[in-house]
Write a structure and sequence with these properties.
The complex is a heterodimer.
Chain A (H helix, E strand, L loop, with lengths): L1 H8 L2 H26 L5 H7 L8 H20 L12 H17 L4 H10 L3 H23 L1
Helix pairs in contact in A: 3-4, 6-7
Chain B lengths: L2 H21 L4 H8 L10 H19 L20 H17 L3 H6 L7 H22 L2 H7 L3 H10 L9
The chains are: A mainly alpha, B mainly alpha.
């Protein structure tokens, strides 16, 4: 699958195409979970829900989350490139993980819950949260380059 | 919970994971390139939002015409309108963490099978979530606790009704 690898690695237009295709799959997934099970595909919330006492829906939440890594393996099976470029030091991974874990609980959602599901429902909370975390992430990347 | 619900949840997770991989969202370098608007900006992940949101919205509209979900469980209530300090502070902290590494929760969990270092991130994410859970009343305003469902009372109500968890984000 040389062609697939070239496409995913190349800039702008093909990248947008793969992004849009991935977005359709993500939309189908979030839509299916809502229409089928009446649940919002907020990954940080579903994940955090598994850390406490078992809720009535813990089995299906676990199955949903298990699908994520399996989806990556399926992509590899189909010939996709799944090599990650991760340049962060272990300390940065640790700090970033802490902030993401704490912040998503305090703010009630992450990219999936606020930016995909929340915006699809035109939730005022999600619109504000998405604008804010996008801006904060962009500012962090810009600041990181100055350091 | 019934087998159809579990099948739907698993299929949705698999599709979601495939979408994150196909789009490149699972790759931190790609995400950081998308966030680098003042540098060498890679706009391709804008394509993800451009399709994911309308496709999701279409399903939400379809579901909105029904009294319940296909498996009979209640649909989540309309989104809350409350914008409070917790939402703002949480989004800010999350954004800084996301921008520092390039992982948000979904891609990080997915990356557990792709790169061993993702375990450090997800492990820390668990600690961050537990720190919130155990100190929830300390960090949050009362109104915010009601909004994100962090109070024991609302958690109990939620699991009893089996509606969506705090993730309801929305």
């Amino acid at each position: 699958m040389e062609a697939l690898r070239d496409l995913t690695a190349s800039p702008v237009l093909p990248g947008l195409g793969w992004g849009a295709l991935g977005g359709v799959l993500i939309g189908l997934a979030a839509g299916l979970l809502f229409l089928g099970n009446g649940r919002i595909a907020g990954i940080s919330g579903l994940f955090a829900g598994l850390l406490g006492k078992r809720s009535a829906a813990w089995r299906e939440d676990l199955l949903f989350l298990a699908g994520l890594p399996l989806g990556a393996l399926l992509f590899r099976l189909l010939g996709g490139e799944t090599h990650l470029v991760l340049t962060s030091s272990p300390w940065l991974l640790l700090g970033g993980g802490l902030l993401v874990g704490f912040g998503t609980r305090l703010g009630g959602g992450c990219t999936s819950g606020h930016a995909v599901c929340g915006l699809a429902r035109l939730s005022p909370r999600s619109i504000v949260a998405t604008a804010l975390f996008m801006a904060a992430a962009m500012a962090t990347v810009a600041a990181g380059k100055l350091l | 919970m019934s087998a159809p619900r579990q099948g739907i949840a698993f299929a949705a997770g698999l599709l979601f994971g495939l979408g994150l991989a196909v789009s490149g969202m699972v790759n931190p370098a790609k995400v950081l390139g998308f966030l680098d608007i003042f540098g060498h900006w890679d706009p391709s992940l804008a394509g993800v939002m451009a399709t994911a949101i309308p496709v999701t919205a279409l399903f939400y509209r379809l579901a909105g015409r029904r009294p319940a979900s296909l498996t009979g469980s209640p649909l989540p209530p309309p989104p809350s309108r409350r914008i409070d300090r917790n939402l703002l502070a949480g989004a800010l902290l999350f954004g800084v963490g996301w921008g520092a590494v390039g992982f948000c929760p979904g891609p990080a969990i997915e990356a557990l099978v792709l790169d061993g270092r993702a375990w450090i991130f997800v492990g820390a994410m668990v600690v961050g979530m537990l720190a919130f859970k155990w100190g929830g009343g300390f960090y949050q305003t009362k109104a915010g606790m009601a909004a994100t469902g962090a109070s024991p009372a609302s958690r109990a109500a939620r699991s009893a009704a089996a509606v969506s968890p705090p993730s309801s984000a929305a």
